[in-house]
Amino acid sequence: MTNAFDPLEKSTHKSNDKLPQTEANGMQKGLTSYGDKDFSLFLRKAFIKGAGYTDKALDRPVIGIANTGSAYNPCHGNAPQLIDAVKRGVMLAGGLPMDFPTISIHESFAAPTSMYLRNLMSMDTEEMLRAQPMDAVVLIGGCDKTVPAQLMGAASAGLPAIQLITGSMLTGSHRSERVGACTDCRRYWAKFRANEIDEQEKDEVNNQLVASVGTCAVMGTASTMACIAEALGMTVPGGASPPAVTAERIRIAEETGTRAVQMARDGLTIDKILTPAAFENAIRVLLAIGGSTNGIVHLAAIAGRVGLDIDMDALDRMGRQTPVLLDLKPSGQHYMEDFHHAGGMATLLRELKPLLNLDAMTVTGRTLGEELATQGPGFAQDVVRPISNPIYPQGGIAVLRGNLAPGGAIIKQAAADARLIEHEGRAVVFNNAADLALRIDSEDLEVMPDDVLVLKNIGPKGAPGMPEAGYLPIPIKLARAGVKDMVRISDGRMSGTAYGTIVLHVTPESAIGGPLAYVQTGDRIRLSVSKREISLLVSEEELTQRQRNMPVAHPVADRGYHKLFLQTVNQADQGADFDFLRASEAKGKTPRV
Ligand code: FES
User: Fold this and answer.
1) Which stretches of 373-522 are assigned E, i.e. beta strand?
2) To test ligand 1's pocket by mutation, which of 104, 106, 298, 336 has the most ligand atoms within 8 angstroms of CB?
3) Residue 538 C-alpha to ligand 1 middle, in angstroms?
4) Where do runs of H (alpha helix) occur along 76-220?
């Protein structure tokens, strides 16, 4: 893919070639408190010289590199190569690269759920950016929660910051069929549950689903956040799509390092990039790519760090005006590497141009419009549809309201069964994830294909951490009878790689006494995506009676991070961030449509 971006070229943003060496910059920044500033610098330099640095190196602008490489995180398995390339780019531009570790979170290696740790990672990132001397920072992230955590932390720290995505994994092949995590993981698991494949084939496909290091191969949350980071202006152009193990990903890393030095020189701080216009572009892209519903929660959290609230009704209006153009799994047919071969974000943004804020600033010091103008012309491909011939005429995500979700709920309509998006059915209720695990496959479970499966207590406080358990499995006896989809409702989240008629993020959650807490098996529930409605068809008097009879005890913990989490986590519409981490000054709502 051609990338017209020249990181060594001077940006249009006001620039100083040499960063003045003051207490606010470089190695003199943020001195440790010993009561004597000169001694503090003397000591700092003595220690770093112990690692072999010269005074000449220490006079350069310092570029921090947040290293999230971890043996527990194969999605970041290329971190060592990326760090080498970033360092090369920093050195080429006259900076001093300093990599440092932060928390790293992988979806499958974090209990009880990665989301429980996202805010902790954001705090780690923010405080390390504040505590250590650096003039700009390169954030290396990829797996679902890492990019949002880094953007949240960097937004609060306020430095010049640039996101480097680790990149997607390659696809594998199972008996000649192309496969990639994690949509195909779910598909093959559903086949195994339905007795369509045997134990041996299940084990065979397990070897093929993740063919290399890198993030999930489909438009799951990681790919969604990569596209959102580029749409926000937080990556170099073309930074979202190159797969993890390609030369292009390494070149992007080098460019990122070089760009970080220029950002430090220009004083291009993150607040100049994360503007309301940038969030509108990001939401527009989220809708047009049929992105993960998790993208909304993460965007709300990042926006909250700069004082912005996501206006869910405006988001829904934007959804009605934004067609889905990207044909990627789980709602389409291609994989992330195909998107890259089709030109990546440049191809998508070219189509969306009339709907974007082209004056939004990016990490290059040029606006999104200026960057788009430097990209070459489009070419024939079948992954990104023209805006005149979309895959789906409206945005992939709709916002629902009603007496079951007074604070809102969402549904990924692009991934739902068209026969079920207008549906009324009988509720079959599970009180929590353990109850679900116990009964969902029981032969005694009274359930019919038209029923609505309801799972309580998997919201931000309920589980805790709002796990991706909203993709309730089809009860095994129905799965074996060929049922592929049912209406499912919860206050939890769903993996971006999952699909089905699934209502998520019901707010307020059941664990704090939201109406979902009072749904009983046998109640009728109405879902109408056309009317944006999710309703419990129970009278107000009956609901009040149930609230009186079954008061909800809010979850509590004795100590530690669990206690902090339960005491301070916000609801989904505020990104499930901690209340004390949001910006103290409110700056309005986004999107403005
Ligand atoms: Fe890391 Fe899917 S598990 S991106």
Assistant:
1) 397-402, 405-412, 422-430, 452-455, 487-490, 502-507
2) 106
3) 40
4) 79-92, 114-131, 146-157, 183-193, 199-206
Buried b (16+ CB within 10 A) or exposed e, 525-564: bbbebeebbbbbebeeeebeeeeeeeeeeebeeeeeeeeb
Q: Is 144 in the pocket of ligand 1 (CB under 6 A)?
A: yes
Best mutation site among 113, 147, 184, 216 for ligand 1 pocket (most ligand atoms within 8 Å of CB)? 216
C-alpha to C-alpha distance for 156 and 132, rounded to whole angstroms:
15
As a whole number of angstroms, the distance between CA 143 and CA 69 comes to: 11
215 CB near ligand 1 (under 6 Å): yes
What was the pLDDT predicted at 4? 42
Name residues of the chain where pLDDT drops below 70: 1-21, 23
Tokens linked to 88: 């090369």
* Mean of pLDDT over the chain: 94
The tokens for 374 are 């430097």
């890198």: which residue's tokens?
Answer: 214
Determine the distance separating the centroid of ligand 1 and the alpha carbon of 144, expressed in angstroms. 6
CA 206 to ligand 1 center in whole angstroms: 15
Where do the CATH 3.50.30.80 domains begin and end in the chain? Answer: 402-555
How many angstroms is it from 183 CA to the middle of ligand 1? 11
Angle, helices 294-305/276-288, rounded to nearest 10 degrees: 180
Residue pointed to by tokens 């084939």:
201
CA of 181, closest atom in ligand 1: 2
d(CA 483, CA 164): 41
* Fold of the domain spanning 402-555: Glucose Oxidase; domain 1 (3.50.30)
> pLDDT by residue (tens digit) across 285-316?
999 999 999 999 999 999 999 999 999 999 99
Q: Relative to the CA of 73, which ligand 1 atom is closest?
A: 1
Please tell me the distance between residue 238's alpha carbon and the centre of ligand 1 in angstroms: 20
In this predicted model, what pLDDT tens digit does every residue of 347-359 receive, in sequence order?
999 999 999 999 9
Give the pairing of strands 96-101 and 62-67: parallel
- Helices and strands counted in the chain (H then E): 19, 16
Q: Are 590 and 276 in contact (CB under 8 A)?
A: yes
